[in-house]
Specification:
By secondary structure, the protein is an alpha/beta fold. The chain folds into two domains: 221 residues, Spore Coat Polysaccharide Biosynthesis Protein SpsA, Chain A; 75 residues, no CATH class. 36% of the residues lie in helices and 20% in strands. The chain contains ten helices and twelve strands. Helix 7 packs antiparallel against helix 8, helix 7 packs parallel to helix 9 and helix 8 runs antiparallel to helix 9. The radius of gyration is 19 Å and the shape is globular.
């Protein structure tokens, strides 16, 4: 492959934030990458904001079709060994690609890496990690994602996936700008039986920005997205068969339980009840898997300082 990483950023009406996302890539200490920003039919100044970067950014454009179609478009021309997903309102920390590259070298090119995420509110200074090339790296290694024994707040911006695996599973769904929600969970369900899976604990590699336009602000859209995952699971869409059914159920039930609580506390009781009824077996599976974790302890692996080797 021509590059180690292809970074894919879909952007829809992100004039205010897309420049900061791009700048976070250009500030990386590891430079063997290509960067794609897919303008998903923006009607604000997103296109103008991207022009300022010239050839440093590969800008693709499409009619508004949502982030899954946008990322599929960029992945179709990407030349990187790994795809790095980043939402246009989030940032990569300066050491992110260096961290991912070290993990790839240390663990013989694992198919899936899940980055470590910190959070900040729009208008605040993001808590970015040092760009020190010898920063301490701590990871968890699991047979695959479904076998993980640590809690992970999943986000597209945390996903680093070998491109050959992305192609093998057929990429992302051809959803729409109204139905893309839970795209990260759908992808992980499709690749969750491939391993090993590396989950980064330290350093932080992603900074998630909280703001008024986050897609998670729409409780109804998220609930509908989870219900969509339930339907796909029941139709046999996801790999692993009966052997991995409990783990898939627990994975879906984990996000369902969170949003049942959000909907209920937010006064959207009908949505909470709808999701509870739809995902009841998954909710039960989540409780069962959590009870098993009491008897298991995930192994943390600390990578040696390369400067001392």
């Amino acid at each position: 492959m021509a590059f180690r990483f292809s970074i894919l950023i879909p952007a829809y009406n992100r004039e205010k934030h897309v420049g900061e996302a791009v700048d976070s890539i250009l500030a990386q200490t590891f430079t063997n990458y290509e960067l794609f920003v897919i303008d998903d039919g923006s009607t604000d100044g997103t296109a103008e904001a991207l022009k300022a970067y010239g050839t440093r950014v590969n800008v693709l454009r499409q009619q508004n079709q949502g982030p899954e179609v946008a990322r599929n478009k960029a992945a179709g021309v990407a030349q990187g060994e790994y795809l790095v997903f980043l939402d246009s309102d989030d940032l990569l920390t300066p050491c992110a690609l260096m961290t991912y590259d070290r993990i790839i070298r240390e663990f013989n090119s694992p198919p899936l890496i899940i980055g470590s995420m910190t959070y900040f509110t729009d208008g605040q200074k993001p808590p970015l990690e040092s760009a020190d090339a010898h920063a301490k790296i701590t990871v968890y290694k699991f047979k695959d994602y479904l076998a993980k024994e640590v809690s992970v707040g999943l986000s597209s911006s945390r996903i680093v996936l070998r491109k050959s695996l992305f192609d093998q599973v057929g990429g992302l769904r051809n959803s729409t700008s109204a139905t893309f929600h839970l795209d990260d969970f759908n992808l992980i369900l499709n690749v969750g039986t491939y391993g090993p899976c590396m989950i980064v604990e330290k350093p932080f590699t992603v900074a998630y920005r909280a703001h008024e336009a986050n897609s998670i602000r729409s409780v109804e859209s998220i609930v509908n997205g989870i219900c969509g995952l339930v339907d796909l699971e029941r139709s046999g869409k996801y790999p692993g068969g009966a052997e991995r059914k409990l783990e898939r159920y627990a994975f879906i039930g984990g996000i369902a339980s969170l949003w049942v609580k959000y909907a209920w506390k937010g006064g959207q009781r009908k949505l909470a009840l709808k999701l509870t009824k739809k995902s009841a077996p998954m909710l039960a599976a989540t409780l069962y898997r959590k009870s098993l974790r009491v008897f298991h302890h995930a192994e943390r692996i600390e990578l040696a300082d390369e400067s001392k080797q």
